[in-house]
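About this split. The held-out portion is used to measure sequence recovery: a designer receives only the structure tokens and must propose an amino acid at every position. Recovery is the fraction of positions where the proposal matches the reference. Here is one held-out target exactly as it appears in the evaluation file.
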């Protein structure tokens, strides 16, 4: 937790410099509390760095494609000419990401993760896939991660302004 706290402090300090007045002074505290609630339910003081990174990527304001590429980079394993996502790595990613909706009571069962993993690797004879296959699968909006593009779209529309008046 100490290592993640330090990284968050640095992250939010940079954000404060880039966007003065737009970062809550307690952002590090709030984010660390959220990460602990998601990934340290036993209260042992340990949060897996990769799990925390996945959550921060998912909750970032970046585009979906940028998020998907970052997930690949964090969970891929070297595979000769190109990095690859294994079935196990995909299971880990999906399990980590599904802690986000679980924190608000929208949990997914382990079978959801298995079904999603099977759908991603459908027709793939190997035990690992390349980035393009991974991105293609994510763009199909698998049910287990449907909350992610939905949240992105909601966030993207927050800043839309139009002249129409609603009653």
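Reference sequence for scoring:
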């Amino acid at each position: 937790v100490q290592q993640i706290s330090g990284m968050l402090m640095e992250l939010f300090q940079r954000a404060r410099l880039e966007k003065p007045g737009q970062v809550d002074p307690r952002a590090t505290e709030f984010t660390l509390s959220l990460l602990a609630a998601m990934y340290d339910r036993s209260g042992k003081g340990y949060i897996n760095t990769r799990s925390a990174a996945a959550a921060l990527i998912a909750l970032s304001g970046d585009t979906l494609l940028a998020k998907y590429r970052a997930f690949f980079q964090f969970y891929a394993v070297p595979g000769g000419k190109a990095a690859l996502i294994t079935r196990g790595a995909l299971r880990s990613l999906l399990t980590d990401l599904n802690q986000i909706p679980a924190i608000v009571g929208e949990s997914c069962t382990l079978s959801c993760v298995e079904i999603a993993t099977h759908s991603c690797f459908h027709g793939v004879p190997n035990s690992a896939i390349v980035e393009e296959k991974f991105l293609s699968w994510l763009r199909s909006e698998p049910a287990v991660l449907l909350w992610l593009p939905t949240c992105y779209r909601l966030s993207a529309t927050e800043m839309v302004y139009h002249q129409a008046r609603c009653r």
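Annotator remark: The longest helix spans residues 2-18.
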